[in-house]
Each structure stands twice: as C-alpha cells, then as structure tokens.
Amino acid sequence: MKLVSLPEEPPTILVVDDDQFIRELLRRVMEKEGYKVVEATNGEQGLDVYQRLKPHLVMLDALMPVMDGFTCCKHLQKLSDEDETSPDSEHLEAQGLQGVSQTPVLMITNLDDPESVDRAFAVGATDYITKPIHLAVLRQRVRRLIQQFQLYQKLEQANRELQRLATLDGLTGVANRRRFDQYLDDEWWRMIREELPLSLILCDIDFFKKYNDTYGHQAGDACLRRVADALRFCAKRSVDLVARYGGEEFAIVLPNTTTIGASLVAEELRSLVHGLKITHAASAVSEYVTLSLGVASLYPEPDTPPAKLVAEADMALYQAKASGRNRY
Known about the structure:
- With 328 residues, the chain is of the alpha/beta class.
- Helix 9 packs across helix 10 (259-275).
- The strands form two sheets. A five-stranded parallel sheet has the order 2-1-3-4-5, sandwiched between helices.
- 50% of the residues lie in helices and 16% in strands.
- It has helices at residues 20-32, 43-53, 69-83, 89-94, 114-122, 135-166, 177-194, 208-215, 217-234, 259-275, 307-322; strands at 12-16, 36-40, 57-60, 105-109, 127-130, 198-205, 241-246, 249-255, 291-298.
C-alpha cells in the first residue's frame, strides 16, 4: 500500500491596510510567492482576523482609521504573548532565536521619519518598509520573517517534547521522581491558596525482589509496566498524578481529596492490581502480585513543607506492610 502525504498548508499572511489598491497589490505579490493572504481594512478588524486565523505574518499599515497601526501592533503583541508557551530564554538565545517567539509584524507605511520608525519598533514591529514599496525587498523580508518564525515553532515543539520526556519514567511511562517532587510542591501551594485538602498514596509491590529473583529482570520490568498502567487507570482526574517514586514504589498525588476519598482510591488500586493475576509464586501473601499502600491527607499550611505529607504516607505504608501486606 502506497502512502500519500498530504501537502502542507501554505503560510498565511494577514494584510491590514485601509488602502484597497495596496491590499490588492500585496495580495497579488504574496499569492504569487505561494502564500495564503487574508485582508483587513483597519486595526480592529485586523485583531479579530488575527485571533481567528493566527497567521504566520502580519503586514500592517501605520496610518488607518478606527485604530492606527501602532495601537494595533501593541495589541497584536499582547495577543501573541498570551498564545505562546515559550522555551526558556537562555535556550532561545543559544539558538539565535531570542525575540522571534511572537508572530512577526511588518509595518508598511509612508512614514519614514526617525520618530515613526522608533515608535514602530517600540510597539513590537519586527521590521519596517516604507512606501512606495520595493517589491523585491519586500519578498525577501517576508521570506526571512516567515522562515524565522517557522523555525522557532519547530524548535518550540521539539523543546516541549524534550520537556515531556524529561519528566517521564522511561520504563513505565508514568511521571518520574523529578516530576513528582515538582508537582507535589506546586499542588501543595495551590491547595494552600484554595484551602483544600491534598492526599498522597505511596504503594509498594509486595516481595518484588523475590519476583525478580524468581522470574528474571525482564519479567520484573513487564510487571512494573502493568502495575503502572493499572495505577494510571485508577487516577481518573486530570489533576491526579501517578509517578514512579523509586524501584518498585509508586506515588499517586490526589489534589482536593480527603482521607476518605484517597482510601477509596487506594482500595481500588489494591483490588485492581491483585485482579491482574500476575503470578508470583515467591510471594508470602498471595499467589499473585499484590500492593501495600500508605494513605495520607492534609490541609497544607505555609509553614509546613510537603515532605510532611510524604513522611505520613511513608509511615502508613510501613504500617500496611507490618500488618501483613496486600492492604492499605
């Protein structure tokens, strides 16, 4: 079967100018270069079109009725700031892309005095061309601005993926210890602000060392993955976080959850893992793999660190193990 790749959509250029002749001229020139062009006759209309279409480049006249180009450009930068999720500035600077995270704005105007040029760049314009327009120069500047913006977008997407991978446990696919520490701290302070409870479940696969010794490390890895999948299935809300805490130990962060609610989740976790019926001939409590779980719940306070919640859950886990395992 032959796979057919769909053609990429051409970059979109928004032309904002009250002069119909200029708009038509720019449309013809840009469409000939392979770009998709949309038009607006004033700044307010331009902002509306920008929010709907998120173009790759805005061509903006400085002098227009209703809203001039300088005011429009300032609003465009605010909208662009709200849309973006930037990688850290040091990484951008290292790549030579600092300052290109926003949608580029090319001012095209009759104004060529130094004050107008300074004002254009002060409100966020990326580049500036005066009328009458030198079309060869315009084509080159548009090509450069769009290529630069597309390169940034690709870099941003790659950075997001790297950040995502940096917070995942490579074996199980759940959050890693680094992500757990960060998330617990974030939710601790959020629960303080909202005056809500925060619960934590620490769980341990019973006699996992014996499981590895009996079945081998590949089987042990497969067991960890199946348990992680079960935990992820039970953490149903988007705010719940399942993390590999270390070795055969997992943690589940449950924001806005009381002790009763967390206990119900813990029992569901225990029951589901036992119900997987993963054979464990070396276990002293069951013929199948089981979990021991420790549950803790607190109303976080500013003068108490998140480590207190971890310590209480760890103590509860120790009690579950001392009481015979396969319980919370």
